[in-house]
Amino acid sequence: MANITTIGVQYVIWAFTLLLLMTYGEMTFSPLIPPSYPLAVRTPYLSAWLPGHMALNLPSSSPQFWFGNNLTWSVIARVDGHPYTLFGVSNELDGSEGATVIGGRFTSTHSIFTLTAGPRNFTLDFLSPVSPKNLLRQSLPLSYLTVMVGVGHGDVQVYSDIDSSWTGQADNAAWNFTIKDDTYLYTMSPNEGDTFVENDKEQALWGETVYATRSSAPATFSYASGPSFDIRSQFVHNGSLRRSNAPWSADGVVGFAHDLGVPENEIGVTFVIGHVREEVIDYVGNIQTGYYRTVYPDTISAVSHFLDDYDEAASESVTMDLLVQQGGESSYGVNYSDILALSLRQIYGGIELVVPRETMNVSDAQAFIKEISSNGNINTVDVIYATFPALYTLSPNYIKLLLRPVFNYMGSRLYKEPFAVHDLGTHYPNATGHVPDGQKMPIEECGNIIILTYAYQIASGEDDFTLAYASLLKQYAEYLQKDGKYPTKQLSLNDALGEMANQTNLAMKAATALTLYGKLTHQQNYFIMGKSIADAIYKDRLGTDPNGTYFTMQYGKDTWFLVYNHYADVLFNADIFPKEVYEITSRFYPSVRKPAGVALNGDIDWGQTNWQGFVAATVYDEARTMLIADMHAYISNGLNQAPFSDRYWVQDNNVDQTNTAGHDHAFRGRPTLGSHFALMALHGGDRWQGIGDD
């Protein structure tokens, strides 16, 4: 592919733009201004965002890593010799002016902004592909920025740069420049970083940041690296760069410039941003590398392929966007589809696909997920559970890929507990095993392992996983049989609440998992066990108030709780709890709603959208409408700027000004938003039939 995009891809991008121009005469954003726009969100270390309110001043606004630290990424254009800043230029440049923002739009895979610069319109299209079944495409830790130039008059040049803020060690880095055929690539890396170590903002201190583009016309293309002011001034004054590379400096950038002449039709140039690591995960001493390296072992070939793949990736993204939009709307309206669209890149951007570096065997492919922002654990089983509705809907094989390293670890001599493990390591990317004093959630994780295995089998139609790990599944079912009805003092998925005995939600998970294990293995006795626990919880009032109007947090206590652990009963039509259970919760939750939503329980002032998403799929009518409306109001209220935080205040907490109803609380950028797909999942699993599936 040359630097100029094809007509087909132009149509993809300008179709979105036309929606903006048809709708808005002034600066307008659709479908809403989110807390933060995903720009390049592909892995835990390639995760760049733009706080929503900054889109109004896009020419001078800098993107941020998910943690909140600023990154340098700029776009400048010249039209008839006059320079305009389009994105990320916070300092004044001689003679330049900021372009005028027209509007913005996000879909499930794109964030698109339109600006006017003199007689030309420009569109910046940030595309992070989500390709659930094409493991090669999804495993590439790269993302696209396409700058489209609209019809108009005057000659046009386009420039873009980044700096070493992307490396995790901005004050001590190095850069290199490579040309292969018509692909031009800069790589930047920290000088003194250690493998598998992060900085205090959770950026990787090993590997390489990449920035690349393509041109088949060297005479109209230029590049340079050096001090920021010098490189940008070259472009501002000349419309080109010197094609030279200075030694690295702390204020340095690497930049590209395309001279497009006087285009008569819409035209575009594409840049690639990425973060690559040869050593991706330490899995109990077995080093894992990126899945894509089985085909493209070096960075330049991977980047060249990614550029070659742009047209298909962009075409596939339209299919994905339509699936999410239409699936969301048909499940529960436009508000719901907005929530899903904002969630999708964040979900898959927390997962990496790998193979053993020593063998490069694709049949041993695995996936690892980071518990971003909460504590950094790797392959936390309850985080996989919180993510599974999206995976069940779009890519059930991911459930298998995420659980494979968990099962293999639990089946080894490295793990000796009788119950399922909580995580594979205290901090990503070190899957070096669960530490003895780490978190333990016996009932929670035993239940999650069984439910996830069942979900994979139902969605995929394959029983390979059930057969391969039959002994472990039986062991955990027996543990639930023994301890599931009266859980001892322990943590649950909501570990912020601390250890408690006789948690109703845990017993619900045990009941559900035992019943599904019975279905999984065709053993009626387990179905009966699960049903008996469910009957005790509800019919015998073990886990409800005396009148059976709501479920309690603990047996015999008054505090109500947002019960989400009977979701699998609804999803799989398991007939564990009677219909009236869902009728009483549908009546109850609207009665306890606080100003911005339903809290996790009656004693606190915060709620979580992931559990609200599960519950929305189990309730009816007013309660479902309320939950979806509250989640939508939260992401559109203008109070927040973090990547979609799944925890927020539903009532003023009176501690400080950020603890107000509708303000996010503690978390940011976590992949646990997969549970937002719980309603869509009710319409069936494995719904993605994309382009170029493996």
TrEMBL record:
The chain crosses the membrane at residues 12-33. It comes from Aspergillus nanangensis. This is Glutaminase. It comes from the Eukaryota. Residues 333-679 form the Glutaminase A central domain. Residues 109-325 form the Glutaminase A N-terminal domain. PANTHER family: GLUTAMINASE A-RELATED, PUTATIVE (AFU_ORTHOLOGUE AFUA_6G09910)-RELATED. The lineage of its organism: Eukaryota, Fungi, Dikarya, Ascomycota, Pezizomycotina. The keyword Calcium does not apply. InterPro entries: Glutaminase_GtaA, GtaA_central, GtaA_N. Keywords: Membrane, Transmembrane, Transmembrane helix.
